[in-house]
Design brief:
It is a single chain. By secondary structure, the protein is mostly helical. 65% of the residues lie in helices and 0% in strands. The longest helix has 29 residues. The protein starts with a helix and ends in a 7-residue tail after the last helix.
């Protein structure tokens, strides 16, 4: 049992970023983009309406559903964000494994 826990910790430490980005995209794909939902935006919670990232979550959601025009209307960088995140996931997946002996 102890070796299983060590293996799990080792796996998570080596793959944390890749798992984080994959889970983030999955959650963004599955989210319900309703305006009445609670927000995580610090600017919005402080009643500051000039947030540079306003709408990026909705834009990523729409881009993942291939609704590109709607994505661009929510935030012009939403499509680019999806491309960059997907590129990072591929980079992490293809990273050469170092074997230490």
């Amino acid at each position: 049992m102890d070796t299983l826990i060590k293996r799990a910790k080792h796996f998570l430490s080596k793959n944390f970023e890749r798992l984080f980005w994959c889970l983030s995209l999955l959650l963004m794909f599955c989210m319900r983009p309703e305006r009445s939902a609670p927000t995580l935006c610090i600017f919005s919670r402080l009643n500051i309406h000039a947030c540079p990232g306003c709408g990026i979550g909705h834009a990523i959601h729409d881009a993942l559903h291939l609704q590109l025009v709607s994505s661009f209307h929510h935030h012009p960088l939403g499509i680019l964000a999806v491309i960059i995140i997907c590129h990072r996931i591929v980079q992490l997946s293809l990273k050469p494994k170092l074997i230490l002996t």
